[in-house]
Amino acid sequence: xxxxxxxxxxxxxxxxxxxxxxxxxxxxxxxxxxxxxxxxxxxxxxxxxxxxxxxxxxxxxxxxxxxxxxxxxxxxxxxxxxxxxxxxxxxxxxxxxxxxxxxxxxxxxxxxxxxxxxxxxxxxxxxxxxxxxxxxxx
Length: 138
Known about the structure:
By secondary structure, the protein is of the alpha+beta class. The protein is 24% helix and 35% strand. A hairpin with a 3-residue loop joins strand 7 (110-113) and strand 8 (117-124).
């Protein structure tokens, strides 16, 4: 992996200034028609939700943000990708293995360049939602 060449090929130089003062993104919300099955799957992997509102909302704290699942009536999430950043490459692999063990599908972990050198672990949940789990390579 040649990170310097990668950076020269794909990053703007000079890097453009942000037009706004962002603090970050608060979370990701997914709507599932198969709500109970989705709750069971994500609970098996992530443990019990930290937020429960009525019969149609569940949320898990992921670092500084939230993964929220809502009851939907138009199918399951499509054309969406969730990215989860882990503390270490080993943790990325462990989370991927948990998603796969619970019924997801994934490719073997690999080292790639995605803004920086990373360990890349992809999973597709049983409903078709793509989850990218990664950690910086240090």
